[in-house]
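Issue 218. Parser rejects a valid record. Input:
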Amino acid sequence: MKTLQIIEMLEWQDEDIEWIIQKKDTKQGRTLAQNRTWYKLFSAISKHLWYSVQEVKMYMLSWCFWTKILKMSKEKMEIPVISQTSDLTKEQWIFFIDTILAFVKIKNVPVEITSREINSLYDSYK
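Output the parser choked on:
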């Protein structure tokens, strides 16, 4: 909805109501092609290291963005500070991309990612 449309709509509302309007930048969503590239990277690391895709993702999030101790009853568990990629900011996404690509290179993970696919990952978050 455009700003003028919102203002017009609010003008017709009860005058006893106070309205607070806040404009907020939203995150850009990933395309299906970008999701396929992410899956290709995580899947290649998964096969290379013999861990599930979800375990690789949790490991990478923990490695990039630290962990915290969760204490429930008498048990303590170390969990990622950020547990879902959807919670990442644009700056964190760029760092995450850099880290995963460096990891793939250092560990010699066999995966064919074109420069176009890599650029697409960066383009959506810059």
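Fixed in the parser; the record now loads. Residues 11 and 67 are 48 Å apart (CA to CA).
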